[in-house]
Q: What sequence folds into this?
């Protein structure tokens, strides 16, 4: 079972236990069929369609789902963007965990879109972070892509990011970068976090491929960009907000990363409107 | 493996893959040890201590953790509330997934505390909902308890909640409640959602143990309370906000439930401050 | 994988290992097909049809199964109640674990039906207990339903049952019931076990929803019923036998629970009669 | 996770769900400790000690268990044969699934002992069958050993047993045995089921290592023994009862197999007597 | 999930992680379809067709596979023996793990065929050992069968093999064989390893079913065969090579076992030739 | 359970089934203890120490293991490099799967060391490939490191490798590299396979970070190195042998990759010499 299937299994297991949906089992005839529409109750960017479909199909492979809008689409309040049809019990049982995923992931995509728009049309691109919900990393990173952002590394395994503690343990930025370079396979890059321009200089000299400028103000970011002159990629991080993003873009960094995209997006409001069942 | 262990395994699997934390493997000596303190950077109510500890211990059973503040404690910005000590690599590897859990769960506890305080000292109690993050239900519901709220049913398996679609499928509130009563085991109660006072009357007459008053305004809630006169428990739900809660409490319902507690709490800010490693 | 699939996987794993059914692999041609009928060799109440089908389908999704009698049906000795058709190897491999489930579960349903008939047509209903075979709880509780019994709580998670040790730990029935009431969610009831009438009085006064009368004789049960006068539900338990059940029903309790339904039912005799294979 | 751990996990999962033992969580203080004794309420042969211990340790590795009587011991009604000590919550939570295993497995051992005694001190040995509870095969076969029986093959994977359908598919006993012999590895024997003396003659001539005499009466069994004159091992099966076993032994077969040992043994009565908890 | 599915899942998990095949995701259109042919680049005996197909189907159940040559076929360098057709991404993603299995297993089958041919047409048969790749035992033993060899026992569970350490622990060959005979079920044989003729005599006298002649030279093997005169089966093992096998066969043993079949076979060369994709 | 634990569980499961090591259970007393030494019977480079220890500890956590030589050490024929001590049954049961891992992994490390030595002390470094045994990738790649080689990417997830089919699907090398660059996260490099110098030129111009020179002869490799002049890293692959490696190194490429390191290394000979058990 892959990570996606495990997540859906966990979502259903915690909601159904070994007993199942007692309400639906009690009051809904096993043969009753139903149809329902996904209705947006917010202005939102859609994400999580495959995950929501996965919940319905894990409950009942016979449920039929059709999406009229795709991953990454902007959907207005009041718009219908999909439909499910199948056994009434299955629709009722899968409804809540499917919506829980869809609302959270679309919330992330929607916030990402706002941040991308705040950055404007310059060269600065928006990155996510590892501050994701445990178990949902791949889905939340896909939601960032749906909203127009780029992904940073997926985890600790596919990129080197040297932080203050790594540097302290090695004695210097130079030493940390050298150790990393000697260790990693030839298709993996090395990024180093710095907090001032001296660190930036040292990281570039030691051969970093990319430098994270941590918690620098706009002026310092601009100075870092000028000093670097394109020798390495620059990522700004720390204290980002939608309001500040235009100024960070103006400073000319290659990337801005924002943890809030995934750790503090609010769920958007989506409901599943069932056609009245015939008794 | 139980649900808690599975969640932690999933969190580590998506962050470490089969390769591990390449940065720490590359630059941190395997024998180096470290110590770090959990520092609150917000006014918050703590939750997720056991989950955070579980992450550290899953990475390395030899890490030692001591909490100076307990689950449900109020912690002020700038306060240290715990400490970890162990192999430096293990601390660095576990840091992010542990903080991801702690920040999210403490965010939920903090929002819950605000809502509990908004309700005041009357009889109205705060309930959570099933609008939780897939895979984190038990932890998020524990965070609600840490914040002073009560849990509603844990899932579809341990309580009957009859909603509009169930009623439509049965033809009437009365019929739905009767079917439910006949089906469930003798220690399970039956709650029915209603949208008006006629529904309330019918639900009580049909033998509901508890009634959910859906999307009613404050005046209607008060009227429902008066009419019910304690015959069943009453839960108000829909369109709740911190601002409105005092008025809902004044209406005299037994319970208020808020999905936002779990689906839209913002992560609070917590950092893990490492003592400088000796190179 | 849910609990049902896990059970079937365990049953096949212990019977097949990684080697498989060496006899059928050795002597049965892979292309040979067969057909077989399920034959009852006892008077019985059927249960476990879905489980038996699950075994065949786990061995080979291409096996076709048709049941001519449904779950809960009374089947006489010599009657055929179903048929399987498919690869001869698959039928031979699945036969024993499928029959093991069918015989055990139908044995439970059959004993349950006898107990229900012994209770007669009054208000007293038959409940099962948690004395089930590890791993088979859901199936055995479904067999009790197939036989006409009701289920008690499914496990420790969906109902409160306060027993002697809980009471001792709290100091009194009253204190135990108060603690339970304060802890549980609003849709869960509280049952308390008592051994005498003073305990019954205390449990009712403390707010129990249901009381288990443990090991009381028929006269005491009747006295408890009279004293309670419908204020709470009453369950009689301990030393039940088919012979005694009419007297317990006459005492007027709401429920009787019997562990023997699941822990001591004898397997009924069912065989799978294969049509002669063409060599 | 091996089969034993999976069974215990399944037993706890179906009893605890993701919520746990709500009664003990509600009314028992987390720090309260307790002690309890395993008390036999029947004359029985003990089996399942390791399984019962496994349940307690899966709930709480800190529970301490000491057995005063060993696997296979005869224990009289009223005797104590073991003790557990640990957190009161853990003892209460593990009690029922541990007893469910112990009562069932000791029931099998007890019935096996009766059958072994019925066979007497001659050469005929008692075998079990594959008619075991799904998921419990290894434990139930160990219970048969505890009761003094021998195990037959553990599953379809470690011995060849040619039955009527295999013979039909091959055209003859001779052909079936030849195919089996050519297929199996050199350390595996081939047994063939026969229903008459002609079949016995053919099986021996074709090179069977062992022959199962199916549903033969005592006289025919004796004739088969005489005719075989020790050339192969003989197993009698079908319609066995404690009453008949002495006659089957007198017929002189090497083995008798009885499905009832595992599919129809009654659970014996064992209780876990807790010392009164201090409130 | 059975052992076969677990192996394929492990192979894909270690190759894809939670991120997937980034190259194909990046550069291959999701709708592009492709076709490819399995091309042998060695003279080889085919094995692993089902395993290779399992990899493709685990990646994408929609891939269609047709084999023009079967398991155990001799395929010449330059011959095509199968074809896959499906989504281009799926073919590219599954290619390497499928080939890894096919090349290794066909390598084993090819070496086995050489050894079988070296033994010649006499009575001596070739056996494998337990020196297989962890996790691939069943597949590697099937490859030995595909190459014309026989399997020895599958593992420690389905046959008794008494070695020097067992003998030392028991005090004598006789004692070890007696203990084994008393323990094992009636369809399992007992083999004993010996290093000289005295050991052979003792093993036969003690009732071994089969004797392994360990590290004996050709002359000693011949003497052992003569002395045994067919009373038990004889297996020669140790220091086997393709060159020596004819002499071992000439010595007249029943079986020769070679660990090198599975632990040191070289992978044969097989490629998957894709038709050029249309851009 | 992580990949390492899953592999060990699979190795034990296929060897032990649900029955266990019947020989040791039958003939070795449960209380007997033993001690054994790992003895090298080849000149070898050690790898797999942790894996072998993992097998012993999975069988019995009480086994004590001490290694006198470390991962990557050269061990001569006849040298002892470690010792195990514990229950005799546990040592005998774990012996074969532990040795299977140790012999295979040390075989890979030994072959790698030979290849590294053949490359000499120049700048050319040895890389492994994805041609590993399914389920053993991480262990086999660690064995390559133990032998002095470098790892290439761990799987399809942590590096981009554009091959002929990807290029065909995109229409050109340029287009494929552009698509890859746009897709991957900022810490992942892009490598492109080329078969001639025109391809090399195009790949460099399109922005590849590294180029794989596929199946080029020594002269062409040297020309590619000269032409590239250090602008990108160069990897030579295809038709490598120990004999050819010095010439490839002389051509001046940065890396050579060899599939044979993992797919065709012969197992080295290692035995576990037990001290004679006292009977």
A:
């Amino acid at each position: 079972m892959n990570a996606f299937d495990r997540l859906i299994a966990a979502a259903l297991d915690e909601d159904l236990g070994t007993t199942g949906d007692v309400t639906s089992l009690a009051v809904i005839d096993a043969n009753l069929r139903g149809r329902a529409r996904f209705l947006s109750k917010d202005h939102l960017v859609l994400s999580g369609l495959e995950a929501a479909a996965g919940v319905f199909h894990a409950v009942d492979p016979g449920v039929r789902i059709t999406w009229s809008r795709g991953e990454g689409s902007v959907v207005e309040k009041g718009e219908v963007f999909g439909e499910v049809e199948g056994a009434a019990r299955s629709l009722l049982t899968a409804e809540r965990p499917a919506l829980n995923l869809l609302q959270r992931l679309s919330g992330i995509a929607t916030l990402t879109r706002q941040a991308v728009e705040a950055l404007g049309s310059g060269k600065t691109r928006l990155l996510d972070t590892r501050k994701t919900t445990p178990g949902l990393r791949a889905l939340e990173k896909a939601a960032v892509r749906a909203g127009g952002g780029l992904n940073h590394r997926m985890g600790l395994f596919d990129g080197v990011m040297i932080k203050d503690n790594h540097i302290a343990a090695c004695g210097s930025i130079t030493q940390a970068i050298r150790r990393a370079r000697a260790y990693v396979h030839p298709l993996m890059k090395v990024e180093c976090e710095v907090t001032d321009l001296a660190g930036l200089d040292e990281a570039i000299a030691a051969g970093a491929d990319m430098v994270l400028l941590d918690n620098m103000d706009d002026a310092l970011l601009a100075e870092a960009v000028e000093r670097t002159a394109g020798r390495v990629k620059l990522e700004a991080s720390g204290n980002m907000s939608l309001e500040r993003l235009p100024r960070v873009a103006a400073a000319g960094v290659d990337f801005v990363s924002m943890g809030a995209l995934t750790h503090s997006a609010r769920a958007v409001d989506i409901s599943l409107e069932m056609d009245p069942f015939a008794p």
